[in-house]
Amino acid sequence: MPPRSPRTSAPVVVSIGGSVFLTGEGDREYLVRLAGLLKRLGRALPLVVTVGGGRTARDYITIGRDLGLTEFELDEVGIEVTRLHARLLAACVGPPTPADPPTTVRAAAELVHRASPIVLGGTEPGHTTDGVAALLAVRLRAARLVNATNVSGVYDRDPRKFPGARRIARLSWPEFRALVSSETDGTAGQSFLFDRLGADSLSRSGIALAVVQGRDLENLEAAILGRPFDGSRVEV
Ligand code: UTP
Q1: Fewest CB within a 10 Å sphere: which of 13, 18, 28, 201?
Q2: Is residue 135 in some structural domain?
Q3: Pairing of β 208-213 and β 232-235
């Protein structure tokens, strides 16, 4: 089989949660390995990566809320943190990845065919970087969206709070959307493994979602390449 090239392979979008990106433990080693993986895969297929704001974004949002900022202003604060993380990862990946992360879905979608992998943070208020990743996947007609998160798949209950939570290997879009809407209300800085805009956009376009533990890079690579992986799949 001839080697795959970015021109002939379908794009893939990856959403990396801020809570995976910086945990306070082994972050340096993780970021070096993650950047290496993205650089290598970005040469083989058009790859776009969004990065979340994690605890840092939530800390700023909490103080901003105490100070009386509006939800819109808090979202803007969160976006700045996601862009800071994107800049850090983009610099680790190095050229041709643009050092200045694109600030719109349109710019990222145009750039990816020239400078894969593209790394970016948030775009506008009202959703999270998962939503940005989903809009990108729809725009690019991506083969799949991989959500690299801090749990190893979709569970029937929060596995960090309920030790007996059961992982669900396969879900339909209606099942997943019901789970997302019961766990999120659209306020700034909330944390669930996916957001409403993301679930609605992917479901409408019939794009598959893979959910994996983002620190497990072998598994993340398998999910990006469309190979069998350990985690959950949401499909039509
Ligand atoms: P995140 O993408 O980090 O969302 O954006 P999250 O789900 O809360 O956190 P993690 O990283 O997955 O744990 C942080 C916040 O920034 C705002 C939202 O308030 C979001 O909760 N944001 C982000 C936007 O308003 N628009 C964007 O495009 C991105």
Answers
A1: 28
A2: yes
A3: antiparallel
126 Cα nearest atom in ligand 1: 25
Distances (CA, A) of 95 to 91, 111, 114, 194, 224: 8, 13, 11, 30, 21
Indicate whether residue 148 lines ligand 1 (CB < 6 A): no
Instruction: Say if ligand 1 is within 6 A of residue 17 CB.
Output: yes
How far CA 75 is from CA of 58, 110, 136, in Å, comes to 10, 25, 19
Is the full-model pTM beyond 0.90? Answer: yes
Full residue range of the structural domain in which residue 10 is found: 6-235
CA of 17 to the centre of ligand 1 (A): 9
Whether 133 lines ligand 1, by a CB cut-off of 6 Å, is no
Q: Provide Rg for the chain, Cα atoms.
A: 17
- Best mutation site among 105, 129, 132 for ligand 1 pocket (most ligand atoms within 8 Å of CB): 129
Render pLDDT for 4-39 as a digit per residue (tens, 0 to 9): 555 578 999 999 999 999 999 999 999 999 999 999
- Residue minimizing CA distance to atom 21 of ligand 1: 189
The CATH number linked to 147 is 3.40.1160.10
Is residue 1 in a domain? no
Assigned domain for 169 exists? yes
Strands 154-155 and 167-168, bridge-based pairing: antiparallel
What's the structural domain count of the chain? 1
In a domain, 115, yes or no: yes
